[in-house]
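Title: Prediction job returns without error message
Component: structure pipeline
Severity: low
Priority: P3
Assignee: unassigned

Description:
Job completed but the reporter wants confirmation the result is attached to the right record. Sequence as submitted:
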Amino acid sequence: MTIYTRNMNQDAIYYPPLGQDGFGDLSWGPGVAIKCRWQDKAELFRDTQAREVVSSSVVYPAYDCRVGGKIGLGAATVDEAIEIRQRGSSPSLKAGQELIKLWL
């Protein structure tokens, strides 16, 4: 267990984005159970359109998640999960790992 993942002791479900269905609605793939560190925290960030917005939560997952996907704490369904609005990453000092940060 590494310094980045040892405190990721919360369970979450990640739903990867698939794009639009035949009716133009967004769709998501099957849920993937992951470990994470979830913080309900208001944090100012820039979304993918460079607008300043405030997060409802910040999540550090032990899994690579994409903007547009959804993530929910515990055994959340896709309807209960929250959209990932931005993703950031930082390499470890020896560049052997990557810490991922998600803004919801």
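Comment from assignee: result matches the submitted record. The two ends are 26 Å apart (CA to CA).
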